């Protein structure tokens, strides 16, 4: 018997192996072919040329450092020192960072490691250790450069502009102004802005001020003053940022919960074992399909036309989109329940509502809760994107900061906050799931 | 012993002699907790909606009757110009294909990355068991970053086009699928792996021949689900950033009246594509997981 079976069996096995071997080559080949097609259609080759790696460098350096502009207006001789060159970060008159000193008309800027820039009436000088002195004086309209020959490529000389880039800082001279940038690590002014009485104080000094120090503002305690100075920090706007984060979480919470509340009763209509009427069931399912098919993007656009920008628009958009998803998953869960418990409740003479409450809901609660909690976490992320479209929450702040293309330290700050927020919601929903479904 | 079992306080012991009373007591307590939770939940929802309404530019009741105004305006205009629609479909088809390509490439790359990450992060299968927490935290971090953040930053560096969106979605997909893949791989039968190890197979051979065939149906099903999600994400990223049908939609919307026929054409294309993909992927997922 085995003798008669063996050839066909061997044949089948060999054929099976041959097919497997072909598949093992065909699938990677197909994937590769598709990726090559995609690379051509996405024009990856020209992307390398278009890529702005200098932008990447600016971005990365802004992520962990800040720059201070020391600018002299060559016409009026007025000197301004400003962090990131912003008016919000300008040092008030009479206040200078300790590496800038002014005596008469001479300004000395110590960039560290022996790099010193001097502005005076005749022009400006920069001393670079290991190279020499770069001397710039205006001759009529044009700046004239005197520096050791040959001029290295980190000194850019154009008709009306001379720029020097060193690791310690950048320096540019034009007819109208002379400007030095110094890069330093850290996010400056994160706690207090320059106009705040608490600026530049160490941790110990601040603790001393809150506990034993005299009141700076006689009307309120130093601690309260400090908190309000921090909260209303004009450079980093901590108060607004906290509100934005709260709005984003609020959108996700309201949207998810509203969707679950609306979808639960509707899902009974779409479940085969609760809706004997075929056409109605079909209609309910198509409604869910339609809602999911239209997609959050379109709902968001339509709703923001009606309700204007803000967190409520985002919450309603999330609620509508997820009603479709929840309706589908809840009705699937309803179709998979055990009928025996419903029978048991029916045998006590319970009506439809009571049967649903005591026979059905306890069975689907775990599925329901884990779905809702999963979506709560996922929607926190969506709420960031929806916020960027409807104009609310941290998504709006982030897109605004990116569009200005200069406040990258704020972008970095928001990114860190968003990631922390999502991770927090992730662990919160995981914790709740454990607590509620597995019973501690 | 009894004291330990029922807790030290005498008062908290259920009176087992009168079990009906004890049961009713338990039910009452459960109902009270349930009721309290419900009250808190309702209060949270009510105050939340009120606050959200407050901080919104337009109010809920003023906006409610306007919800259908904009769609009806759009559809009315499109209806008048319905002759244009087939041509517009044709015109925007390449953008739709680009959106689908972005999603497909990102899902593919993300899934390949997730395969490697998940095997490296699964107990019992990992190549370097000590590195498991590192790979897990990597996946967590990848999952936590919203696509839009990476996409917008990459647009600044790489310029416009579909590649920033692909990278952004692929990174997120790698993290999200990696977690699901790893949960599936945890339940894989280790006997084939041991068998392969006994004949001297190295790690990649053990994984390729011993684990992947077991988990492939579930992995594929998750990847298909992710593809559905990524098509939507790719459309949204197009709207916020650049590239694909989302961008076309944004341009047509910004133009406003006069191009509503385009808006409708793009909307219909996107709608049909999403419904079709949902259908096909649903069908295959059922087939993969349930085997029929």
What key phrases describe this protein's structure?
heterodimer, A: 440 residues, MetI-like fold, 3 domains, six-stranded antiparallel β-sheet, elongated, B: 292 residues, mainly alpha, flat
Task: Write a concise synopsis of the structure shown.
With 440 residues, chain A is of the alpha+beta class.
Helix content of chain B: over 70%
CATH topology grouping of the largest domain in chain B: MetI-like fold
| Total DSSP E strands of chain B | 0
Oligomer: heterodimer
For the record, the CATH architecture of the largest domain in chain B stands as Orthogonal Bundle
How many domains in all of chain A? Answer: 3
Distance between the termini of chain B: 54 Å
Question: What is the domain tally of chain B?
Answer: 2
Low-confidence stretches of chain B: none
Q: What is the overall pLDDT average of chain A? A: 83
Q: What's the number of helices of chain B? A: 12
SS-based class of chain B:
mainly alpha
Number of helices of chain A: 12
Structure commentary:
Chain A has 440 residues and is an alpha+beta fold. Chain A has three domains: 2-47; 68-185, no CATH class; 238-437, MetI-like (MetI-like fold). Chain A has helices at 2-41, 44-50, 53-64, 203-211, 222-231, 238-269, 278-307, 311-335, 339-347, 352-390, 393-404, 408-437; strands spanning 65-73, 79-83, 100-103, 106-112, 115-120, 123-128, 132-139, 142-146, 155-157, 161-166, 169-174, 177-185. A six-stranded antiparallel β-sheet of chain A has the order 2-1-12-11-10-9. A six-stranded antiparallel β-sheet of chain A has the order 3-4-5-6-7-8, with no helix packed on it. In chain A, helix 6 (238-269) packs parallel to helix 8. With 292 residues, chain B is an all-alpha fold. Chain B has two domains: 2-55, no CATH class; 73-290, MetI-like (MetI-like fold, Orthogonal Bundle), CATH 1.10.3720. Helix content of chain B is 80%, strand content 0%. Chain B has twelve helices and no strands. The interface between A and B is large, with 63 and 59 residues.
């Amino acid at each position: 018997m085995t003798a008669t079976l063996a050839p066909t069996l061997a044949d089948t096995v060999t054929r099976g192996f041959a097919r497997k071997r072909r598949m093992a080559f065909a699938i990677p080949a197909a994937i590769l072919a598709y990726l090559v097609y995609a690379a051509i259609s996405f024009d990856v080759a020209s992307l390398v040329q278009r890529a702005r790696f200098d932008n990447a460098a600016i971005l990365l350096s802004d992520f962990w450092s800040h720059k201070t502009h020391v600018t002299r207006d060559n016409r009026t001789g007025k000197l301004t020192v400003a962090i990131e060159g912003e008016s919000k970060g300008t040092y008030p008159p009479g206040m200078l960072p300790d590496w800038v000193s002014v005596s008469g008309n001479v300004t000395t800027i110590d960039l560290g490691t022996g790099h010193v820039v001097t502005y005076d009436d005749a022009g400006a000088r920069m001393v670079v250790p290991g190279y020499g002195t770069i001397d710039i004086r205006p001759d009529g309209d044009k700046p004239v450069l005197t520096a050791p020959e040959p001029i290295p490529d980190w000194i850019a000389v154009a008709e009306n502009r001379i720029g020097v880039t060193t690791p310690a800082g950048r320096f540019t001279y034009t007819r109208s102004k002379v400007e030095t940038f110094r890069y330093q690590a850290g996010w400056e002014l994160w706690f207090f802005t320059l106009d705040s009485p608490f600026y530049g104080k160490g941790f110990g000094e601040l603790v001393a001020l809150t506990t034993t120090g005299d009141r700076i503002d006689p009307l309120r305690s130093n601690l309260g003053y400090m908190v309000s100075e921090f909260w209303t920090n004009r450079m980093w706007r901590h108060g607004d940022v906290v509100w934005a984060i709260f709005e984003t979480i609020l959108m996700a919470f309201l949207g998810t919960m509203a969707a679950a509340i609306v979808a639960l009763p509707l899902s009974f209509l779409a479940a085969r074992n609760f809706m004997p009427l075929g056409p109605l069931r079909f209609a309910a399912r198509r409604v869910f399909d339609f809602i999911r098919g239209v997609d959050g993007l379109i709902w968001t656009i339509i709703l923001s036309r009606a309700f204007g920008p803000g967190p409520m628009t985002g919450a309603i958009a999330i609620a509508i989109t997820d009603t479709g998803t929840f309706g589908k998953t809840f009705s699937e869960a309803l179709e998979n329940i055990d009928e025996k418990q419903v029978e048991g409740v029916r045998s006590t003479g319970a009506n439809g509502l009571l049967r649903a409450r005591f026979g059905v809901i306890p069975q689907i609660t775990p599925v329901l809760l884990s779905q809702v909690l999963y979506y709560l976490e996922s929607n926190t992320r969506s709420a960031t994107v929806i916020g960027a479209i409807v104009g609310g929450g941290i998504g709006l702040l982030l897109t605004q900061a990116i569009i200005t293309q200069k406040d990258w330290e704020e972008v970095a700050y928001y990114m860190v906050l968003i990631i922390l927020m999502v991770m927090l919601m992730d662990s919160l929903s995981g914790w709740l799931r454990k607590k509620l479904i597995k019973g501690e | 012993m009894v004291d330990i079992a029922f807790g030290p306080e005498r008062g908290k012991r259920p009176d087992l002699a009168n079990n009906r009373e004890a049961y009713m007591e338990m039910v009452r307590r459960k109902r009270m907790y349930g009721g309290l939770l419900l009250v808190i939940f309702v209060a949270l929802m009510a105050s939340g909606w009120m606050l959200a309404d407050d901080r919104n530019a337009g109010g809920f009741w003023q906006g409610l009757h306007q919800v259908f105004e904009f769609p009806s305006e759009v559809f009315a205009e499109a209806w008048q110009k319905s002759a244009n629609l087939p041509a517009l479909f044709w015109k925007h088809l390449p953008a739709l294909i680009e959106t689908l390509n972005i999603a497909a490439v990102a899902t593919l790359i993300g899934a390949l990355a997730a395969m490697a990450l998940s095997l490296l992060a699964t107990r019992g299968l990992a190549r370097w068991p000590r590195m498991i927490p590192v790979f897990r935290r990597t996946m967590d971090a990848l999952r936590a970053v919203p696509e839009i953040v990476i996409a917008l930053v990459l647009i600044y560096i790489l310029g416009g086009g579909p590649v920033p969106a692909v990278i952004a979605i692929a990174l997120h997909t790698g993290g999200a699928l990696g977690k699901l893949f790893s949960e599936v791989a945890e339940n894989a039968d280790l006997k084939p792996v041991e068998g392969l190890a006994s004949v001297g197979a190295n790690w990649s051979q053990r994984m390729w021949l011993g684990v992947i065939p077991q988990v492939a149906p579930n992995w594929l099903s998750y990847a298909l689900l992710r593809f559905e999600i990524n098509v939507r994400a790719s459309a949204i990223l197009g709207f916020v950033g650049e590239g694909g049908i989302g961008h076309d939609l944004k341009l047509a919307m910004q133009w406003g009246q006069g191009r509503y026929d385009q808006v409708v054409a793009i909307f219909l294309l996107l709608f049909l594509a999403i419904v079709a993909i949902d259908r096909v992927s649903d069908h295959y997922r059922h087939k993969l997981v349930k085997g029929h």
